[in-house]
Structure formats: C-alpha cells, structure tokens
Write a structure and sequence with these properties.
There is one protein chain. The chain is built from nine helices and 17 strands. The chain is α+β, with helices and mostly antiparallel strands. The protein is globular, with a radius of gyration of 26 Å.
Length: 415
Amino acid sequence: NAYATNDMHWNSMQDAIARNQTLEQSLYKLSQEFIRMVMTPKKSCRHAPPMLLYLDDYLGNEQNEVLSTLASSQTINLMSSYYGIGSISYADAVRDVVYGDTKEWWLSAQWYEGGKYIRGVHPHMGTHIAMAWVVAFNLFNLVTTYCSLPEIETQSATDTIRRLHAGTERNNKGEWDYGYQSINGLPPLQAAKKLGGGPREKPRGIPPPLTRDLSLEHISDEWREDSVENAPLWKTIPECLAEGHFDDAIDHDSLPKPCLFSWVVNMERFLDKPKGLNNKLKPYLTSNSGWSAEADNNKLGWVPSSGLGSKFTLEFKKVAQPVHMMTWMIMRSYGEKWDGSKLKVEAWSGEKLLARDEIVGFHDKKTSETYNIKMKLFDQESDSIGIPPGSDLKVTFELVGGTTFKISGMAICDH
C-alpha cells in the first residue's frame, strides 16, 4: 500500500495526541530514535553505518496554520545538522511557488474544490515528477562533489587516508593533524611551536542524545564517555586490520535480524497477492476460524471473513532470539462496514499473559489509513520485559467488535 505524506502526518498527529505530546515533540522523539538506531553499528568491524538521507516532501494541509505544517521540516533540519546526516527538501524547493498560489495543484495537492478550501491529501503527477528531479539533482550533486575532491597522498605507508563515518581521523595514533600536510607542492610549516587551544580528535561514535538537559558544559564529556563505553563498535580501520578483518577492514556479514517474524503487504516479493500472504502465515498459524487473505480495493490484508468472533492463533516455538515488542500495521476505515470494528490481541508464553490490547479498526475520517500499533511484552512474575531465547510465544487474535478488520503487516522483534 502507498500512502501520501499527509496520511503519515495525520498518523503522527494521532500518535502525539495519544501520548499527550505536541506534534513537534512526537516527531522529534521518533526521528531521533530512528537516526540513532540506524547510525549505530550492529557489530564491530562488520557493519559500517549506512548513508542516511532524509527526504522532506511534506507540504500538506492537515493543519491550516503554516507554522504547524513546518514541524516535520524543522525536525529534519535540526536532526540532520546535529547528527551530520544528509537531508533533501522537495518542500523547500517549491514552497514559495505553492504558497504564492495555494490554488495550484501541479506541485502540491489540490486544496480547493468548487472554490471551497478542503483537506487535500494526495498530490498529482506534477509533484511526483518534480520530486524525482529534486532527489536526482541532489544525489548527482553529492556524487560529483565527492568525486571532484583531490586525492590525498600520505607521507607514510602506515597511514591511511580513509576516515570512518564515526569521524576518526586518518592518523593511526589518534592525533588530529588538522588536515595539513606538506605534500602536493605545499611547503612545510616553519614554526615548530604548536598553537594551543586546538580541538582534540573528535570522539568516536555519534553525539549523545539531543535532549533538553544536554548542556554545552557537559556535552564533550558525555560524548567521550559514550565513545569509551562503546569503543568496540567504532574501531578504526587499522584496529580492524590488526584483528584479521579484510576488505578495507569491513567484512560485510548479513545484518542480524532484529525481528523473529515480520511482513508488510506489497513490501516484499510475493506479498502482493492473497496466496503469498497465506504462505507467509502458514508455518506459524496453528488455528484459524474465519480469517483469510483478501485484496479488496487492491489493498491486500489479513481479514476476518466470517465476521464477529473470527479467531486465529500464531505460535513460535523455542524462539532463537529475545522478543520484547510486537507491532501490528492495521488499516482503519469508515462507514457502516467498519463501524465498531475492534480486535482483541493477547500474547502468551506458556501460562503467562505478557500483553493484551483491544485495537480499534474504525475512525470518523473519510479515508482509509494505516496505523502502527505497538504492544510491549512484560512478564509480571519476573518483573522483566519480553521473553528470552528458548521460550515459546503464542499470540491470539479475535474480532470482538464490528464485522471486519484488516491487518496489513506484523513485526515481532527484539525492540
């Protein structure tokens, strides 16, 4: 399923309301958690962090106040500058044109119908074409800028000119040379005395979490303490080579899978037809009374075809990894068919109830949208989160309200 940024912005608004937060607070927390998770290596010398680029494409009119519509853009700008990641903004590229005439619909959604201002969600073809060009231009600019940088020669065969994403410098000894070398025609420095007050080598790893309590007085200490604590994740190339790693000290093992079981319709091969979804669930589906894979209105999902009381159970025996969180991607819709829709979900390990929730499947908006519902597993007997490897996990589902529901994705993971 594909949904406009406006739909996802609406979801962010609802999530913020549920958490008693402002939209800005919710987006800030979500973005920072995502960036820190992606940019932290999973294993030393094995998995270099990827190049992360944020695309800001939200022009939207979920709110009528211009400042409120800029919440997402402001969050992306702040996070990209603090963490040193890339950001591309289609919205900034066309914002003045759109704001100069909000009745246009080449570069944004259509916000007027019959002269009346309306909620416009889905942009037209012009937006998609223009956005593709903005992204292409920025990617080409990135590549050409990098490729046009002069090559740096080294004075010693033991030095390496490459630098890790963590920012560790090319000098093996961990001393920062400030980038100056008397090579390529540059003269040697005449003064032997070094100027005082220069910065030390940047700490390994990513900066500490950006919170209201983080102060200029303590940010350096916190960053360096974290670098020492997590040093194995941020080893330099010489350190990795010394341990016997190859291919520029980065071995490309397959990434460890954080999820025991996961799927999202239309996001992987063969999950665009009911047969593919049935095959995905079959190995773990131990009982089923009334649920099936259906693609109504070209939107595939797992639905209760027998109506109220429909049940199914998923079981995972002797799990190979810890499981702390379950996430359900569900569709909420409107109208008589969806009125009162509600699904009861319970998670068990043996005789222990780890989580229970009743998930609503309807809303009063005149659109069908996907929501992410999270359930944290908690063992009250041991006062611990989740289940350890070797445990059994059973998840039961029952339609307890309305006549229909739709699950469009699942993720049973270690976080």
